[in-house]
Amino acid sequence: MKKIRKCCVIVLLVVLFPANIFAQERRDKEQTYVLENPYEVNKITPLQGKKIKNVVLMIGDGMSLMHVYSAWTANCGKLFLDNCQAVGLSKTYCANKLITDSGAGGTAIATGQKTNYHSVGVDVEGRPLKSLVDFAVGKGKSAGIAVTCRLWDATPADFCCHNKDRDAEAEIVADYVNSNVDYVFGGGAKLFENREDGRDLFKELRDKGFQTPRSWDELVKIKSGKVFAVPYPVDAPLPDERGDLLARASLKGIELLSQNDNGFFMMIEGSQLDDYGHFNDINLLMQETHDFDRTIGAIYEWAAKDGETLVVVTADHETGGLTLVDGDLKEGKIVCKFSTGGHSGVMVPVYAFGPGAQEFTGIYENTAIFDKIKKLLNL
Ligand SMILES: [Zn+2]
């Protein structure tokens, strides 16, 4: 009888928290990953001495130096990130916790203020904060975001929405209608329509002048104007199924935003490094990290040609307590362990490329990333 009850509890737990249960099984065990087809990486050098007109901020959610070094090893000793010109370290703790989440971590980068755990785009009193999106648009620039996760997830919301509880998903999504953003690409259509409050957010966005393509094919046809693209009910497909979607969606955003002669600010997120870190799944985590690195390569290429675009790559915090314990550079093999199913406390890297890159050297608070971008863009 006791055995049956125990079985029932386990079955119930697996049903309720499948990722957590599997993550627990994987925790502290060595996981081996070999990248079957390493990708080529070319040298990309930006033009020197030009002024800064645009900033592309790229956030690998949960990406630490260990993720980058593991991905570098698996790709046989090369990454597009290696083209960066300056490196710094960011302290990620939030207002009321040592180990932050994407809500408070991303809010610090987006708004320049440390806030409480689980807050998005608000201060410790719950008051709305202006983000780099708002400051850029306030100065006549355009602003956009591109992510592969659902749009109520904390990182995109940190830049466009305001809520002291990141779990208030329906409220957060409705806040996009009030955002100053000009281009959005992400998942999460299911909370934009058929809502409990009866609102059709796609219609409200169209009334505000947005085009609302619901597929990649619809999006590519758009050549100008404001765009709010949500092709997926929740998240975009897994990295090996979606191909170079993040790079394409980001470059599409840049194509539209760069039509503004005053320049633009764009945030691009490698969204699911965090999810796969929580799952303690090295296979998916490396796929996502390599996808993010190839997206970085595509953005570096564009920025190098443009010459007036600064690209900053960083993270909001570390996820999984990832450790590389063995591997082989020639074989592209890594042996890793995870120490937690949550986030860990460690400074995260900041990589800068293009005009103004040298401003990002040193050790600083995560809020300084906001300060530096605001100053460099004269916002
Ligand atoms: Zn997380």
UniProtKB/TrEMBL annotation:
Keywords, sorted A to Z: Hydrolase, Magnesium, Metal-binding, Phosphoprotein, Signal, Zinc
Sites where the protein binds Mg(2+): D61, D153, T155, E269
InterPro entries xrefs: Alkaline_phosphatase (IPR001952), Alkaline_phosphatase_AS (IPR018299), Alkaline_phosphatase_core_sf (IPR017850)
Pfam families per the UniProt record, alphabetical: Alk_phosphatase (PF00245)
Keyword Zinc carried by entry: yes
Family affiliation: Belongs to the alkaline phosphatase family.
This protein's name: Alkaline phosphatase
Species per Swiss-Prot/TrEMBL record: Bacteroides stercoris
